[in-house]
């Protein structure tokens, strides 16, 4: 191989493009391409290895090695020099291949006479497609320009592979994005769904990897980069209302977009014959491969910035936006890196499921998914790179697992699971009109959680006794500005109307921590979950709280009204908030507006401190609702957003249950109504245990009411209480095993 000029590279790329346009089978194209590359680079050998499955590379074409080895020689990912290149995404350049660590001799190829080896990855935006190899008899390392030139050729091969240039006959390689893939993520919302992929941001398809006029391509690139820089600068100007993390992302975008090295490298790729779009993807793929090998967490985090910036630039160059003209499939499962609550609500209940690469169990998207009762899996890393619109997909929200393009045996087993759940729901439907009464005649009230008008039809269909928690913050989270009092009053009125006399407990605005309003100046805090949030915000900034209380009073139109204040940690917070509410009622009455005929004022018990408040606090509360999600994380000092610890502690731990019993006792002594609200209230075994300990009102998602009611009706709460006591006396850390064993014997 000798040093080559830019015109040689452009000539080779044009010949490769012409091969793509020539009629013929996939194998014919592969054979012709290896001949072209070997001839153009004056190499003795050129070989193309492509993936047969995610773990296996296959020699698919060669010029110089034994032809009989084609489609016979295979190696595992990481095996030999070719496998190393595929695994790491980094070229290997050596003048003495047999002495390289991990070298594996393939006798059927006849490669023993070739000493020099240069292998570069065939990859597209982090997606590994194969390896391009050239070899020579003389022992020498290839020049830097030669390595770079071969990487440019590999980029074109990646685009050709993506476009299906090598498919179509028995010996050619199969299409990409065809293998079954399983993603193990985290449960965001329980449930199971089968459907077809709908990408929130469809992949950009580069249809012209080779440029005919380098100067024209450079102009296109420079104009697109200038537009991108202007867009980012404009976003930064309007970033005052963003939180620190969002501003840091934009600052990183600006730094990358204004990087002269980034633009220079893309211009060098164009000079060698790539189109502007292909140059962007080559730089994105090369940088991604380097960053993925880094042990620096900060550098690895910059992968997202690089991908987002490159995709923005590609959309400017190709004109491909999010609206591709494709129709939403009949059973859409949304796949995205992340998504805001308003965007998710736009899709609404049409979605069968949602899969995100990012997100958290307390994110806005998770809150909306729960409100819509849509199965959600988060932390499904790199699924947006693997999935294509229309791909079959299975979402197991219970286990946090996603099957993309599943094998039929997996799909069949999954359908059986969905069918069993559907059959169980039919059985639960028969319980809609009966009470959650155990075998001894004790009754438990089962309420539903809501936050949207779309939730209210579930009140009747689920058999709920009322709405135990209406999350008012969702109406604030999905808007770009603070809602007006009239808008809120109209919404709350529709909620009360839809309940048709069933009780509705409105929780005032619970923002802060993981719920940051897009139009509110963010507060930088070391521990937001224990910081300025919920009632603390309401009391320090009373304008919004007063406006919300006025809207609730007007919405009642003289009917009963129940309001509870979130995250009360000290009695004074409750007394101050209640006094504010009473003043607003007096004010509304003075204005001639109708006020509630009956007012119930309560608090969310989410901090352990409140359980030890004086009796006067309990007496002043008409009701208390245990906020199980927050209370559990504070009780065990285990952040529920931290996947390492949030599942570490069992809800049925004896110490936690003893604390729940203390709360039950305090409420009973002061005649204060008590309920339990949170994810655990909707889990049948946990719900049954709480009921046995004396919590006789539970609030949960509508889909959980049937299973919980079914279990309560076939159980004896008094007998179960005895089982719990026995387990405690024996010194068990958790009563889960004892409760489960008791239920199995019924």
Please specify the SSE layout and strand pairing:
Layout: H1 6-21, H2 26-41, E1 45-53, E2 56-63, E3 74-76, H3 80-88, E4 92-94, E5 116-124, E6 127-136, H4 144-162, E7 181-184, E8 186-189, E9 192-199, H5 214-237, H6 244-257, H7 260-271, H8 276-292, H9 297-318, E10 332-336, H10 341-347, E11 353-356, H11 364-372, E12 376-378, H12 383-386, E13 392-396, E14 401-404, H13 408-429, E15 436-437, E16 443-450, H14 458-462, E17 467-471, H15 474-477, H16 485-499, E18 504-507, H17 535-540, H18 542-556, E19 561-565, H19 571-590, E20 599-605, H20 615-620, E21 623-627, H21 628-636, H22 654-669, E22 673-677, H23 684-692, E23 697-700, H24 702-713, H25 717-729, H26 736-744
Parallel strand pairs: 9-10, 10-11, 11-12, 16-17, 16-23, 17-18, 18-19, 19-20, 20-21, 21-22, 22-23
Antiparallel strand pairs: 1-2, 1-6, 2-3, 4-5, 5-6, 7-14, 8-12, 9-13, 13-14, 15-16
């Amino acid at each position: 191989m000798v040093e080559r000029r830019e015109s040689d590279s452009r000539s080779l790329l044009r010949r490769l493009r012409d091969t793509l346009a020539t009629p013929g089978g996939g194998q014919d194209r592969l054979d012709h391409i290896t001949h072209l590359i070997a001839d153009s680079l004056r190499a003795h050998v050129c070989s193309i290895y492509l993936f047969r499955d995610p773990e296996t590379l296959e020699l698919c074409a060669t010029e110089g090695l034994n032809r009989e080895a084609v489609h016979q020689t295979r190696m595992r990912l990481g095996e030999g020099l070719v496998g190393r290149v595929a695994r790491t995404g980094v070229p290997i350049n050596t003048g003495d291949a047999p002495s390289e660590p991990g070298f594996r001799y393939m006798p059927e190829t006849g490669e023993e006479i070739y000493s020099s080896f240069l292998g570069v990855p065939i990859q597209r935006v982090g997606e590994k497609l194969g390896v391009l190899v050239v070899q020579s008899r003389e022992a020498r390392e290839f020049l830097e320009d030669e390595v770079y030139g071969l990487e440019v050729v590999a980029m074109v091969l990646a685009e050709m592979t993506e476009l299906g240039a090598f498919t179509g006959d028995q010996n050619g390689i199969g299409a990409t994005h065809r293998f079954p893939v399983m993603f193990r993520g985290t449960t965001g919302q329980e449930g199971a769904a089968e459907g077809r992929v709908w990408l929130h941001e469809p992949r950009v398809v580069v249809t012209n990897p080779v440029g005919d006029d380098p100067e024209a391509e450079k102009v296109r690139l420079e104009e697109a980069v200038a537009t991108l820089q202007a867009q980012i600068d404009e976003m930064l100007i309007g970033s005052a209302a963003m939180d620190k993390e969002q501003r840091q992302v934009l600052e990183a975008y600006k730094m990358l977009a204004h990087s002269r090295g980034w633009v220079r490298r893309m211009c060098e790729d164009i000079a060698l014959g790539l189109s502007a779009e292909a140059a962007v993807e080559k730089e994105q793929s090369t940088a991604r491969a380097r960053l993925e090998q880094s042990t620096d967490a900060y550098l690895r985090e910059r992968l997202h910035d690089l991908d987002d910036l490159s995709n923005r630039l590609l959309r400017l160059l190709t004109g491909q936006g999010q609206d591709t003209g494709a129709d939403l499939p009949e059973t859409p499962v949304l796949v995205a890196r992340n998504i805001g609550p308003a965007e998710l609500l736009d899709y609404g209940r049409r979605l069968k499921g949602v899969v995100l690469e990012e997100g958290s169990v307390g994110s806005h998207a998770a809150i909306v998914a729960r409100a819509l009762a849509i199965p959600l899996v988060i932390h499904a890393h790199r699924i947006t790179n693997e999935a294509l619109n229309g791909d079959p997909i299975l979402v197991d929200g219970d286990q946090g697992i996603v099957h993309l393009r599943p094998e039929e045996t997996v799909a069949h087993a999954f359908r059986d699971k969905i069918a069993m759940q559907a059959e169980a729901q039919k059985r639960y439907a028969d319980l809609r009109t009966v009470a959650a009464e155990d075998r001894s005649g004790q009754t438990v009230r089962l309420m539903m959680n809501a936050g949207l008008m779309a939730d209210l039809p579930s009140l009747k269909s689920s058999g709920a006794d009322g709405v135990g928690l209406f999350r008012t913050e969702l109406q604030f989270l999905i808007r770009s500005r603070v809602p007006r009092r009239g808008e809120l009053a109209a919404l709350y009125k529709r909620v009360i109307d839809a309940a048709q006399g069933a009780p509705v407990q409105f929780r005032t605005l619970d923002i802060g921590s993981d719920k940051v309003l897009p139009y509110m100046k963010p507060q930088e805090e070391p521990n937001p979950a224990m910081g300025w949030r919920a009632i603390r915000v309401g009391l320090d900034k009373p304008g919004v709280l007063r406006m919300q209380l006025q809207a609730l009073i007007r919405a009642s139109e003289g009917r009963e009204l129940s309001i509870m204040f979130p995250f009360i940690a000290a009695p004074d917070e409750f007394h101050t908030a209640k006094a504010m509410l009473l003043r607003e009622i007096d004010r509304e009455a003075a204005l001639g507006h109708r006020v509630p005929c009956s007012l119930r004022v309560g608090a969310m018990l989410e901090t352990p401190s409140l359980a030890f408040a004086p009796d006067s606090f309990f007496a002043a509360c008409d009701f208390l609702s245990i906020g199980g999600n927050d209370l559990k994380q504070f009780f065990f000092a285990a952040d529920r957003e931290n996947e390492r610890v949030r599942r570490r502690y069992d809800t049925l731990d004896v110490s936690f249950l003893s604390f729940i019993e203390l709360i039950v006792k305090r409420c009973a002594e002061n005649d204060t109504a008590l309920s339990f609200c949170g994810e655990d209230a909707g889990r049948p075994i946990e719900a049954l245990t709480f009921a046995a300990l004396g919590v006789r009102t539970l609030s949960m998602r509508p889909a959980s009411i049937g299973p919980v009611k079914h279990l309560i009706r076939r159980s004896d709460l008094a007998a179960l209480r005895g089982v719990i006591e026995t387990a405690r006396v024996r010194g068990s850390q958790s009563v889960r095993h004892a409760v489960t064993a008791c239920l199995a014997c019924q």
